[in-house]
Amino acid sequence: MTRDNAVPTVLVAEDHNYDQMILKEVFSRAGIRADLRFVNDGEQMLDYLHRRGRFAEALSAPTPALILLDLNMPRLDGRKVIRMLREDDTIRHLPVIALSTSESIKHITEAYSIGINAYLVKPANIPDYVTKINSLWQFWMVAASLPVVETSPS
């Protein structure tokens, strides 16, 4: 959680509008208060994290407490993004959770090997998704000790 117990920002890199809508619904049904910020591809995610382009304004890109990253995105996919993120000293500490439809052991192993903190297979139905997101939230935002994040961009 943030230093002043403000609603934490969750940056979601997801290129499908339908999946974005589902995730909003899942957070709502789980009763999770979060400031969900969506980007559509890996380039937008990096722009957000580095406060470039349309994210240059202070309020448009609060530092996320958690990142949910679709691994298969256009322009710059999640695998490349996580590699770049982990090489950057200013943002490498951010927890990143992979969201994927793939249950392939190969894909899961690859994700962990490049720096993903956790891998979540997108459930096929809303109740299961609510359960998984609630468990994820309880661990990362309640149980885990995370670095203090700034709440307003510099």
From TrEMBL:
BP GO annotations: phosphorelay signal transduction system
InterPro entries (UniProt xref): CheY-like_superfamily (IPR011006), Sig_transdc_resp-reg_receiver (IPR001789), TCS_response_regulator (IPR052893)
Keyword Cytoplasm part of the UniProt annotation: no
Domain Response regulatory: 9-137
Domain of life: Bacteria
Keywords: Phosphoprotein
4-aspartylphosphate PTM sites in chain numbering: 70
Protein name listed in UniProt: Response regulator receiver protein
